[in-house]
Amino acid sequence: MTDKIGVLGKKAPQRTGVERVVNAPLPTVYGKFQAIGYMDHDRGDEQVALVYGEIGPDDVLIRLHSECLTGDAFGSQHCECGDQLDAALRAVVAEGAGVVVYLRGHEGRGIGLLAKLRAMALQAEGLDTVEANLALGLPVDARDYGVAARILDDLGVRSVRLMSNNPRKREALVDHGITVAEQVPLLIPPCENNITYLRTKRERLDHHLPHLDAVVSSS
User: Fold this and answer.
1) Which terminal residue of the chain, N or C, has fewer Cβ atoms less than 10 Å from its own Cβ?
2) Which of 143, 150, 161, 170 is catalytic?
3) Where does GTP bind (predicted)?
4) Angle CA(11)–CA(17)–CA(20) in degrees, nearest 5?
């Protein structure tokens, strides 16, 4: 405890806000990014922004990607998250510059990994993703995008072209002072294992997924 005690015997004030901690080169299969690590002192989460190329302040192509261990790391077909992350990283490289903010603490739309797995078990029994969360007494979507806006501020980004099908992400950035010049669709072809999940996102969570029309009409 001595490292937290000041010269007058008082505890040092607790840090708040988002702090840039490190900037390291990150060569990937997509291209060479800069991995800029942040500490969110308010929530205790470690965050990272993957920056490609020289970004300016305006109309930067970005993705706010919510952490999804099952999709991003394990290749789960229950959702389209892993494919969206792959598509977003490829898009910023093709653009020549852009940012993917990987938001930890967003697992399962903010309910955490174990709760998400419990919700997935209920979905296997016939509930949709909204019903499953509510059956567990959990919010449908507990994510907060304030930290993402603060990271973009730190990077000097004022306006973005947001790769997302979720109107809530756009609204959240605007509410935090980031201009969204364009919302760029990030549409992944559905498969047998995620079509019901995707339909629920469109019908109950207002995600813009027009590519499902062809699947709906042919099913």
Assistant:
1) N
2) 143
3) 63-67, 84, 107-109, 129, 164, 169
4) 105
Cβ neighbours, 10 Å, residue 197: 17
Instruction: Cite the annotated binding site for Zn(2+) by residue number.
Output: 68, 79, 81
Model confidence over 4-52: pLDDT tens digits? 444 455 565 677 799 999 999 999 999 999 999 999 999 999 999 999 9
Contact present, 39 and 19 (Cβ < 8 Å): yes
CB of 40 closer than 8 Å to CB of 147: yes
Q: How far is CA 154 from CA 29, 56, 61, 148, in A?
A: 26, 12, 16, 10
Catalytic residue among 141, 161, 170, 199: 141
- Looking at the DSSP bridge assignments, the partners of residue 125 are none
- Give the DSSP letter string of 51-79: EES---SSSEEEEEEE--IIIIIT--SSS
Specify binding-site residues for GTP.
63-67, 84, 107-109, 129, 164, 169
